[in-house]
Amino acid sequence: MKLLKKILKIVGIALFVLFLVLYYVFWSFSAPKSDVKVLKKISGSSVTPVLTYKNFKGFKYRKLSIIKDTTLPTLVFVHGTIGSSIDFVKYMKDSVLLSKANMISYDRIGYNYQDKNSVQESIAFERDMLRSILQDYNPNKTILVGYSYGGPIALAIQQKIRKVILLAPAVYSEIEPMPWSLNLYKWKFTRWLVPPIWQEASREKLSHKQDLQLFENNWKSTPNNIVSIHGTNDWIVPFKNSLFLKEQFPENQFELISIPDAGHGFIWSKFDTIKKHLIQQLD
């Protein structure tokens, strides 16, 4: 009996230490990266990236720019939840894409490194912030790329640009999934377990469905041509989101590209496929 208790104690301690290690790795991996780490991730690009800080309505945010030739079109990436400007770093380092476009990516409020502000839980706020960013670029040469929760932000700008490309856009409130893990944030006695950046993502997730209802009946009023690329096996942002959009637009304004069996992380796992479609829009 004593031996069994000793074994159970050792196993319990080992499991607890393993939990702490995994929790620390998860916390560190998902936390926003410092300026030094961001620039290190994008090092090796054929064009020197520029990291700047901008202000919008009293909020400070970080912007990553790669401008090679002002005569080229500009890809402006809008990240999802959880996310950051470096979600698209592989695209921003790709030599073929860099030969065809300038690139911009930015951290939305609440997702900046050591951000003292919370997410704004407002598509309208995010839309207006994106509009302020777009003022610096020729609209006829601007292509918006909105991923996940960045999709409705890109779609909501309602101003004429060259094109809007949506990657697994979360645009339809009726099918917005609410995973059980959100309860860890909702329950006060477990909230401390949720890393700060995931608390921000949870806050935005919980309000997104209601916020979408203010916009989803007006998606069709956009003046832009739209391409939506979506994995058919996406349970985080179901494929039905893009099918919903397809019903809103005439065929000459909206194109749906489905990627069989791909999940929500397809912007990384299906990089070559996404890159191919981006090149098609740039040519």
Account of the 3D structure:
The protein is an alpha/beta fold and 283 residues long. The protein is 38% helix and 17% strand. The chain contains eleven helices and eight strands. It has an eight-stranded mixed β-sheet with strand order 1-2-4-3-5-6-7-8, sandwiched between helices. The radius of gyration is 20 Å and the shape is globular. The mean pLDDT is 89.
Defining key terms:
alpha/beta; 283 residues; 8-stranded mixed β-sheet
Question: What form results from the Cα inertia axes?
Answer: globular
| Share of helix, binned | 25-40%
- Write down the secondary-structure element order: HHEEEHHEHEHEHHEHEHH
Q: What low-confidence regions span 5 or more consecutive residues with pLDDT below 50?
A: none
Distance between the termini: 74 Å
Number of helices: 11
For the biggest sheet, the summary is: 8 strands, mixed
- The tally of strands reads 8
Strand order in the largest sheet: 1-2-4-3-5-6-7-8
